[in-house]
Amino acid sequence: MVKSFTEGFLWGGAVAANQCEGAYNLDGKGLSIQDVTPKGVIGPVTEEPTEDNMKLVGIDFYHRYKEDIKLLAEMGFKVFRTSIAWTRIFPNGDDKEPNEKGLQFYDNLFDECKKYGMEPLVTISHYETPLHLAKEYNGWTDRRLIGFFENYIRAIFTRYKGKVKYWLTFNEINSIIHIPLLGGVMTPKEELSAQDLYQAIHHELVASALATKIAHEIMPDAKVGCMVIAAPVYPLSPKPEDVIQALQTEHDTLLFTDVHVRGKYPSYAKRIFKEKNITIQMEPGDEEILSHTVDFISFSYYMSICETADKDKKAGKGNLMGGVPNPYLEASEWGWQIDPKGLRHVLNTLYDRYQKPLFIVENGLGAVDQLVEDENGNKTVIDDYRIKYLNDHLVQLAEAIEDGVEVMGYTTWGCIDLVSASTAELKKRYGFIYVDRNDDGRGTLERYKKKSFYWYKEVIESNGASL
Ligand code: BG6
């Protein structure tokens, strides 16, 4: 019996527009990079959207959001995380005026959340860079994206100021180091210079701080968070070389949180830039913008990684963060190593470093589910493996709260089945709600409650006491 969770703890779930909405070309929406990456965010990029791209239809959330929000409300959700598709609002990214039909869609969606007392938690950019900005400007390598992004955030902040209090700037902003395409950068990773990569990062960091600044001006009550992939980095052995390697890999993530929370580049950045021969082009005013720091830190947590100085050791499978497998941990079917205690670890280290509220905005198990009939003839999934994964992580979250860490809330990833980001599959399911759609495009799109649906409902109802 766990009692650590505070009154008002924000329990809920998360999705992203491009992975669930579908309707990729309706009501004035333009193309985003997701519409041309049918095999997942790792690429390759196609010339045009192709039929095998599961995201074009997603789970048709665009048309079914009312039914879906109602189901999430039935579980007792206090918060629902989704993203705004930039290309619904500015189809090309550099348009002068926003698209009214796109704005209207999110008005309706947020109203629907409010109807059930659910707070929307909105990601401004979840790997959804407009394709036009990727093709014409090479994404965030080009400083002009800051201006286009500013138009976009001003439009959405002004429109939703009475409806959305919680905002996240860029989803997993540190992922651009591993997959530059996620920042709309079309130059293949192998050909991209460190100078261009870190310049793109600088532009995103300035844009992110600008969003915090402008959000606070337009919506004084708003709470704005940064969002990173947080994977604790363990040294593979106690060898000092491995420990130093782990520290350096950790810096790849901390660079992003340090700038967001401290409002300036950390001291170790100087050495990274020097060794990679990088000179960040700063404009007058950038330092002032960066000084607008976030209200909280949010992160996704799926796994920890191990680091070693031994270059012959191979990286783990399916692991965006790199690192080598931990011999003490088991992995999901996609090779993601499962480490509930790592969540306690990362919560403690981030809180010790910053003393800022933390928000876990993604956590979950991607697994193949089997639709079966229960004793009453209703279709369901007996997903005890998912319940175990989530339960184990929540117990560690409760431990961290006992350790004194301030945690605002917890949103599981893919609370309703959706299209996977890394592999673009539907068979990699995370949800409490099963969606009848398969990787060959077949399926009725009907929704069915899994066993975990009832489990999570009870967790929320008891504010964690049922864990
Ligand atoms: C995170 C992303 O990296 O992980 C999500 O923010 C993504 O968009 C999630 O869906 C799970 O990854 P995947 O590849 O299993 O969908």
Automatic annotation (TrEMBL):
Keyword Hydrolase: yes
Hydrolase in keyword set: yes
Alphabetized UniProt keyword annotations: Glycosidase, Hydrolase
Enzyme class of the recorded protein, top EC level: hydrolase
Listed InterPro entries: GH (IPR017853), GH_1_N_CS (IPR033132), Glyco_hydro_1 (IPR001360), Glyco_hydro_1_AS (IPR018120)
GO biological process: carbohydrate catabolic process
GO MF annotation, one: 6-phospho-beta-glucosidase activity
Active site, per annotation: E362
Family stated for the protein in its record: Belongs to the glycosyl hydrolase 1 family.
PANTHER family according to UniProt: 6-PHOSPHO-BETA-GLUCOSIDASE ASCB-RELATED (PTHR10353:SF122), GLYCOSYL HYDROLASE (PTHR10353)
Name of this protein: 6-phospho-beta-glucosidase
